[in-house]
């Protein structure tokens, strides 16, 4: 022990006690998904607090020189009887709330582990336990003991990031509860024959806590529920609180506040019920709670069971490429997208095939390195190391080892934290749109692949837009980069129109008679109709024609200028109603297994076709400003090509205000009005909907001919720190300066701006003299546009992502992927052979090019 004591003394200066703010990774390896429960446990560096599995700890020791690691091994205890009969301990509480990690909810720490902790000294792997420290010098014992205790008591990063508290029933105390006035209605307590006083309905009944009268509840979006009589009673009397009969138990009940329009808590509920002769302590639950009903209503739509193939007994699968992913709390959108991403060979070769080099080149903190964490995730999904069937957690060692549908799988906590960092949506635990996350991830890949292979090129394609002025018949051609083809859904092309009309008629009859609603009918839309809607010309009513120097009508036709290796098609199921409220179209589309898009390839300028002159439309300005006034101090009367950045465009304030009231950012609203030439709310709204995915959607309006946002000047100084950050990403100083000036010196916005203006910036290539190539004598021709692959437009379907629920902000995502001619369903940790892949109900479809 003397030798170990001497070694500890020699490394004592490197052993740190965690302080507030330190990132402690004691639940997950930085380079793999090993944890303290894995074979070999987890080694936590006692200096950097990074965790490493047994296969990577030697690598970290060699690279960093650190020798002291805290070795944590957890083994699951034998399961105990839930009732703990004879143990003297109280029985475990069953969950009473749709919640995780809070009182009354599901206990995520329910699994009990035995923990073994010791210090291991490298390279000889000498072990030191807490008992061993008692025989060592005081300075060693105190420092190491403090470090061990500090590490074990510190909150791990993964613990802070994962969903520890999620509550589907978050309710605030009603402001009416404390002073609620109750009337005497002579109530005699429990009545087995409770009915709505208006329609005699015997379910979904609510008792008003002011006067004790009983009415039926609201009608749900699918037509089920009540007839709104409890709501009408509130509107007539103003009595705010009602309790749902049938949910009253000694633990509480569903209480709704019509005035606050939400489910609430009533701390005085026992007294309020006792006023009408109802003893909470003797009541039993006879009806589903509102949370249970919300889930049931979603399931009645039919999507949930069909998409998850719930009606069939599916065969669990495991092995390489068949690894499940744990749901971290509304992270199914991320799980589904990344499962598909790592089916694409470009991402496999970029991150998984080169994993050793990526790990060797990783910075000192690999948890913050994009390439490292993507490679770690890709290897975890493809290697098969974590694709192990999960045994029933309630089974003992001698019980059957029959696997369930789900796996141990991997929990992408580090990856989710990294890709979501700084993003207003993906950094939260709320449900998100899978399409938006796919674009966000591709954007991050673009940022991190400015040198070397860029796997996102597999999805990149060029779109050709041809606009023809109807007055002059002259045309204009533009090209833009895209990654996803958005497919419209023409509801008027449904093939079962009569069935839909009949279903609507039956629903209206049920509404008027108070009968149960009929089963919903899903619209059937031919895929050919969607493609026809995509390819048909669009009419532009307020197009400014440079040929006639006035606004006129034009037609716009969109075609492919190139076909990508992998084509992503988004079915535009999510739209806005006439009241601008988001809604989801419940449709079935006969999406084919093979596609031939050759007829949609753009042909460019036609023989004999004249092009529109390259003239910009007149700027929007104050009527009393003379034309030469736009020159400012940056132009002259002979050269009017520059506008003064100090001039603000005149915008229709009423249109801007209307857009802002819909919840869109102010700067986006200003740009919408500017770029549609003050032509009204409809045109501005169309611009907003077409540019919501732009990286600079919320960035300040930049006037043509300037690189400055309103309120800044071209000579405004920029942050040297921000400049250095952008230059370190591979951009020139001139490019970084332009980006910062265009975004008011905001680093995050500048980075987004620079990636959305790559075409412009590539012509600013810096020469050796420090000037841009455009300023240098003998400047080369500007480089071609973004690199795209091209080939035949023939494709085959290999994956699709489906969404269940009424909005992208709620519900659930699963994906189906074709593996060796067999469809496989990936539903978080469940990985099974698919029997009836619901290809007609998908949201995102992934096709790969078919080679002849």
Automatic annotation (TrEMBL):
PROSITE patterns: UBA (PS50030), USP_1 (PS00972), USP_2 (PS00973), USP_3 (PS50235), ZF_UBP (PS50271)
Organism, scientific name: Esox lucius (Northern pike)
Binding site for Zn(2+): 196, 199, 216, 229
Domain UBA: 650-691, 717-757
Annotated GO biological process: protein deubiquitination; proteolysis
InterPro entries the record matches: Papain-like_cys_pep_sf, Peptidase_C19_UCH, Ub_carboxyl-term_hydrolase, UBA, UBA-like_sf, Ubiquitinyl_hydrolase, UBP13_Znf-UBP_var, USP
Similarity annotation: Belongs to the peptidase C19 family.
Active-site positions on this chain: 332, 812
Catalysed transformations (reactions): Thiol-dependent hydrolysis of ester, thioester, amide, peptide and isopeptide bonds formed by the C-terminal Gly of ubiquitin (a 76-residue protein attached to proteins as an intracellular targeting signal)
Enzyme Commission number, as recorded: 3.4.19.12
MF GO annotations: cysteine-type deubiquitinase activity; zinc ion binding
UBP-type domain residues: 172-280
Keywords (A to Z) from UniProt: Hydrolase, Metal-binding, Protease, Repeat, Thiol protease, Ubl conjugation pathway, Zinc, Zinc-finger
Disordered, as annotated region: 75-96, 494-522, 600-640, 766-791
Name used for this protein in its record: Ubiquitin carboxyl-terminal hydrolase
């Amino acid at each position: 022990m003397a030798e170990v004591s001497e070694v500890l003394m020699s490394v004592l200066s490197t052993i740190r006690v965690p302080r507030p703010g330190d990132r402690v990774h004691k639940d997950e390896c930085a380079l793999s998904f090993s944890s303290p429960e894995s074979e070999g446990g987890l080694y936590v560096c006692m200096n950097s607090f990074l965790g490493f599995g047994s296969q990577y700890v030697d690598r970290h020791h060699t690279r960093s020189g650190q020798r002291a690691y805290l070795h944590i091994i957890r083994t699951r205890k034998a399961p105990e009887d839930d009732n703990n009969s004879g143990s003297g301990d109280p029985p475990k509480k069953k969950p009473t709330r749709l919640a995780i990690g809070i009182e009354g909810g599901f206990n995520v720490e329910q699994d009990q582990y035995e923990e073994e902790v010791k210090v291991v000294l490298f390279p000889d792997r000498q072990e030191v336990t807490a008992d061993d420290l008692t025989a060592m010098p005081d300075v060693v014992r105190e420092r190491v003991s403090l470090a061990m205790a500090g590490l074990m008591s510190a909150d791990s990063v993964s613990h802070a990031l994962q969903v520890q508290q999620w509550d589907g029933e978050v309710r605030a105390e009603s402001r009416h509860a404390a002073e609620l006035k109750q009337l005497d209605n002579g109530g005699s307590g429990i009545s087995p024959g409770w009915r709505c006083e208006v329609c005699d309905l015997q379910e979904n009944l609510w008792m008003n806590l002011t006067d004790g009268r009983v009415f039926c509840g609201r009608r749900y979006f699918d037509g089920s529920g009540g007839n709104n009589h409890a709501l009408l009673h509130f509107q007539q009397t103003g009595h705010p609180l009602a309790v749902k009969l049938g949910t009253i138990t000694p633990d509480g009940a569903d209480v709704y506040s019509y005035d606050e329009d939400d489910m609430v808590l009533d701390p005085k509920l026992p007294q309020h019920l006792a006023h009408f002769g109802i003893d909470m302590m003797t009541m039993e639950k006879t009806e589903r709670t509102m949370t249970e009903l919300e889930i049931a209503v979603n399931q009645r739509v039919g999507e949930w069971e069909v998409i998850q193939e719930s009606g069939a007994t599916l065969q669990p699968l495991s092995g390489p490429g068949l690894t499940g992913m744990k749901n971290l709390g509304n992270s199914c959108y991320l799980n589904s997208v990344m499962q598909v991403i790592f089916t694409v060979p470009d991402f496999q070769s970029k991150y998984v095939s080169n994993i050793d080099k990526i790990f060797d080149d990783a910075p000192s903190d690999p948890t913050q390195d994009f390439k490292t964490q993507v490679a770690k995730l890709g290897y975890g999904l493809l290697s098969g190391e974590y694709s192990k069937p999960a045994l029933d957690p309630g089974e003992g060692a001698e019980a059957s080892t029959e696997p369930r549908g789900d796996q141990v799988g991997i929990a992408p906590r580090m990856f989710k934290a990294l890709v979501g960092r700084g993003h207003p949506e993906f950094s939260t635990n709320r449900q998100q749109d899978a399409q938006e996350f796919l674009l966000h991830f591709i954007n991050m890949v673009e940022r991190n692949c400015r040198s070397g292979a860029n796997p996102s090129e597999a999805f990149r394609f060029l779109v050709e837009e041809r606009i023809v002025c109807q007055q002059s018949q002259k045309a204009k051609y533009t090209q833009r980069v895209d990654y996803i083809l958005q497919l419209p859904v023409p509801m008027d092309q449904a093939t079962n129109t009569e069935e839909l009309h009949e279903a609507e008629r039956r629903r209206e009859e049920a509404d008027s008679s108070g009968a149960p609603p009929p089963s919903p009918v899903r619209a059937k839309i031919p895929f050919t109709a969607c493609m026809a809607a995509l390819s048909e010309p669009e009419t532009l009513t307020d197009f400014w024609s440079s040929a006639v120097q006035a606004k006129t009508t034009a037609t716009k036709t969109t075609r492919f200028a190139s076909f990508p290796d992998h084509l992503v098609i988004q079915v535009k199921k999510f739209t806005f109603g006439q009241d601008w409220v988001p809604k989801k179209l419940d449709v079935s589309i006969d999406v084919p297994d093979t596609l031939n898009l050759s007829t949609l390839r753009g042909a460019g300028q036609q023989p004999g076709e004249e092009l529109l002159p390259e003239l910009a439309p007149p700027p929007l300005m104050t009527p009393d400003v003379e034309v030469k006034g736009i020159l400012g101090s940056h132009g002259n009367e002979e050269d009017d090509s520059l506008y003064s950045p100090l001039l603000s465009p005149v915008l229709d304030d009423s249109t801007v205000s209307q857009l802002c009231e819909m919840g869109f950012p102010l700067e986006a609203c200003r740009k919408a009005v500017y770029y549609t030439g003050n032509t009204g709310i409809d045109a501005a709204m169309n611009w907003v909907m077409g540019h919501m995915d732009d990286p600079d959607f919320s960035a300040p309006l930049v006037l043509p001919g300037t690189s400055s946002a309103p309120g800044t000047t071209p000579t405004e100084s920029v942050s040297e720190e921000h400049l250095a950050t952008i230059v370190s990403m591979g951009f020139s100083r001139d490019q970084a300066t332009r980006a910062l000036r265009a975004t008011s010196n905001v680093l995050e916005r500048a980075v987004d701006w620079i990636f959305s203006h790559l075409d412009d910036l590539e012509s600013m290539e810096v020469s050796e003299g420090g000037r841009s190539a455009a300023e240098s004598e003998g400047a080369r021709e500007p480089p071609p546009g973004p690199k795209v692959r091209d080939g035949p437009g023939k494709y085959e379907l290999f994956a699709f992502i489906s969404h269940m629920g009424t909005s992208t902000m709620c519900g659930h995502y699963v994906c189906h992927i074709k593996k060796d001619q067999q469809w496989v369903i990936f539903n978080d940790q469940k990985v099974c052979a698919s029997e009836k892949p619901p290809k007609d109900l998908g949201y995102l479809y992934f096709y790969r090019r078919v080679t002849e």
